[in-house]
UniProtKB/TrEMBL annotation:
Keywords: ATP synthesis, CF(1), Hydrogen ion transport, Ion transport, Membrane, Thylakoid, Transport
Cellular component terms per the entry's GO annotation: plasma membrane-derived thylakoid membrane; proton-transporting ATP synthase complex
Stated family: Belongs to the ATPase delta chain family.
Name of the molecule in the record: ATP synthase subunit delta
InterPro entries: ATP_synth_OSCP/delta_N_sf (IPR026015), ATPase_OSCP/d_CS (IPR020781), ATPase_OSCP/dsu (IPR000711)
Major localisation: membrane
Length: 184
């Protein structure tokens, strides 16, 4: 249920409220950095994700963990996290954070580009991908989210919103195969 349309309906007003607080206090970028760190932590720790989603775990325990995680964060963000627990919306925390980042990207005319490559991209390659995405989308800034898939053989697949740019060797081989099979 947390990945459903209902999750988005729940997450959006909370993300908008957090954005309003961030904008009125000139903290949009700081909150964005802290939220990216929180998302990375939730995605990398199955234990944390299950702990926060577990209805048996008491709210004070969830608050204590979130306070420890966000100890370097601005007090407004920490208070927001406590509110999410109080309102029993902590199961939607990742979705709320993702919605906030989407609002931040809209505010800054930026896009999220998911890049799948066969190997880790070096800084020059990351810059080249960012430049290409900026040229394709007209965005002022590009946020890269990278994944590694050795099955690509080489090249990259870039996803920006609903658009997919497949510049991988696997994709090229697939296109050649289709054209050969349709020619016979």
């Amino acid at each position: 249920m947390k990945g459903s349309a209902f999750g988005t309906e729940v997450a959006e007003p909370y993300a908008q409220a957090l954005m309003a607080v961030a904008q009125s206090n000139n903290l949009t970028d700081r909150f964005g950095d802290d939220i990216r760190t929180l998302i990375d932590l939730i995605e990398s720790s199955q234990d944390l994700s299950e702990f926060l989603a577990n209805p048996v775990v008491k709210d004070p325990d969830k608050k204590a963990i979130l306070r420890r995680i966000a100890r370097e964060s601005h007090p407004y963000l920490v208070n927001f996290l406590m509110l999410i627990v109080d309102k029993r919306r902590v199961i939607f925390l990742k979705k709320i954070c993702e919605q906030y980042l989407e609002l931040l990207r809209k505010l800054k005319n930026a896009v999220l580009a998911e890049v799948i490559s066969a190997t880790e991209l070096n800084e020059r390659q990351r810059q080249a991908v960012s430049d290409k995405v900026r040229a394709l989308t007209g965005a002022q800034a590009v946020e890269l989210k990278t994944k590694i898939d050795p099955d690509l053989i080489g090249g990259v697949i870039i996803k920006v919103g609903s658009q997919v740019y497949d510049a991988s060797l696997r994709g090229q081989l697939r296109r050649i195969s289709y054209s050969l099979s349709s020619a016979t």
